[in-house]
Amino acid sequence: MAEQHHHQQQRPTDVINSYLPDKGPSTSQVLAAVTLFPLGGVLLCLAGLILTGTVIGLAVATPLFVIFSPILVPAVLTIALAVTGFLTSGAFGITALSSISWLLNYVRRMRGSLPEQLDHARRRVQETVGQKTRDAGQKTQDVMRP
Predict the structure, then answer these.
(1) Residue by residue, what is the 3-state secondary structure of the chain?
(2) What global pTM score does this model have?
(3) d(CA 8, CA 14)
(4) Do residues 134 and 141 make contact, with C-beta atoms less than 8 angstroms apart?
(5) Model pLDDT for residues 113-138, shown as the tens digit of each residue
(6) Centroid of chain to Cα 130
(7) How far apart are CA 80 and CA 86, in angstroms?
């Protein structure tokens, strides 16, 4: 209870001061602020000038775009289609080259292990044929015995 009563009797400046840091900004922080505020102001002014110039340039150029639109629109479409065609062609070319490269690497890897695979397959066929021959011979003997 005493703690709650103590908090209620604090002055408003004490509450505000409790949120502020105990010591002031360091020298490097002050130098950073002194350097960056003017730089930020100059950059903000430049951004405003560029925006103003862009709006004025657009206002001047809009009538020219309207007058020359029968020429500009087909030209822009033609250029856009040509660029799209070149980019698509390049993408397909890169895809084809990477596919061929992968296929060649795959064949090279398989070629190294191909003789081993053929030997293994030949042994399995010989074993299977030998087993079938023995089974057939056994059946023949069983049938021949009275």
Answers:
(1) CHHHHHHHCCCHHHHHHHHCCCCCCCHHHHHHHHHHHHHHHHHHHHHHHHHHHHHHHHHHHHHHHHHHHHHHHHHHHHHHHHHHHHHHHHHHHHHHHHHHHHHHHHHHHHHHHHHHHHHHHHHHHHHHHHHHHHHHHHHHHHHHCC
(2) 0.39
(3) 11
(4) no
(5) 666 777 778 888 888 877 778 777 77
(6) 58
(7) 10
